[in-house]
Structures are given as C-alpha cells and as structure tokens.
What does this fold into?
Amino acid sequence: MTTVPAAASDGIPRPGGEVVLRLEDATFGYGERPVLSHADLTVRRGEVVAVLGPNGSGKSTLVKGVLGLNELMSGRVEMFGVPREQFADRARLGYVPQRHTLSGSVRATAEEIVASGRLPRLGLLGRMRATDRQVVARALEVVGLADRAATEVSTLSGGQQRRVLIARALAGQPDVLLMDEPTAGVDAANQHVLADVLARLVAQGVTMVVVTHELGALARLLTRIVVVDAGRITFDGSPQRYAAERDLVHHEHDSHHHDSELEAELRTRAASLPQGPLDTRGGRRG
It folds into this structure.
C-alpha cells in the first residue's frame, strides 16, 4: 500500500503530489464509435475523485478506458508516468466492476472470491503462500467480512457481496482503486457501511476514482468531483466549487439529489472544524 498522505483538519488525507493517472485529450470508444471524447484528467496520489453524470454520459467508459477495457481512439493515457500500452504492473490498479451483486450461480466462498484478486501478484504458475493468505484475510477484515470468509457468496446480501468485490480488488494490494457504481443496488444502511470501509482505505493512502450517479454516504470522503455529460468532461473541481456552481454544471433533470447531499455534507464538515476555547458546540444533547 502507499504511504499515508498528510491529513487535513477534517481528517481526510490530501493528495501528496505524485501523478498516478493522466488522460490527455483522450477519446475512448468501441469500434469506430467514440463514447468519451477529448478528456483531460489528472489524478494525484491520495485523491478521492467522484465521477458523476447521467446514465450513458460516458463516465463508466472513462474508467474502462484507463484499464484498457475499451479502445483508446486518440490522445494519451498514462499510469504512474507510463503510457497505457506499456504499463505492465496491473496489480497496482484495483478494479471493482459495475454489477449489483455476484451471480447467484457462483459456487464459491467469500474467501475464494477474494483470493482470486491475488492472482496478479502470483503470476500464471504462482501458488498461494502463507503471506498471500494473510493478505486475503486482511482484505476481508478491512471490509468487515472476516467472520464470513467461509460463507458461500450466493447467500450474502447485496451489500455484503459488494464488499466482497472490494476485498477482491484489495487483495492485489493496489495503489489506485477504480470503482464503477459501488453503491448501486445497495440500501442506505449498507451504503454507509461501504463508506466506512472506503474511509479506512483512504486512511491507508489508497487513491480512488469512484464512478457514481449518487454521492450519498461517499460525499464525506471526496477531494474532487468530475462531471461527465454527453461524452465530455464538463466539470473538474473541488466539492465546494461543485456546490457553488451546480446550476451551471448539470442539466436540470440531473442536478437535484447530488447537490442536496453535498450541501449537507459541506455543512457537516464546517461544523466539525477545530474551534477555539471560547467557541461553543452547536447541536442538542440527547
């Protein structure tokens, strides 16, 4: 894992400066059809970047483009300073794909699913050693499923299955975690559990790019927000700037639930800032 960046006053680590992902005028698509065009994006170590946008806008294509899962039609993609086509250390990138749950036909335990994420570190002929099994156990512990290691995944709830997928990505000990709709199909209570899991990873220095259509419980973790609309990046800035410019960023049909959640989160952050000895704490005692 990476070195933990310095934390700001709200306790969330902030970027340390090293560029881990860079897109320069990148256009991604399938065949001859571009889906995301002329994208410029730089992600630095320690950042937690939310990629927002309506369905079909191209936000998932952005993540898949970084991973090489769709065609780079023009422009440039770099990972840790290396062009995408030359980058070989894939274990440094952890990926949680867009799916609500694991298939009900999967006959495997949570531990077995998570262990499969260790394969990039083992090689084609590698065998699990004691240290590898410890990494798998730790990944399950981080997502709060250590007591479900031997449980068949088909019997787990949707939220628990999402956490298994995150643990699988963590088993590769990535420096950057790319997640496509990690809270999709997960109820509000389990979204907060997921957010707590991700907060622990942020504290360990894991950089994150999270594709989502709703901020929800993840809002408190963010250092940046990127908006994709109609195949273009239309906004890239801080959560505070996003809240201030929301009416210019989104079409009317796509703005409301992101903004109310973010405004509430910004108010919470402001209330939690360090106060002087003469300040009083707001709120009621219960």
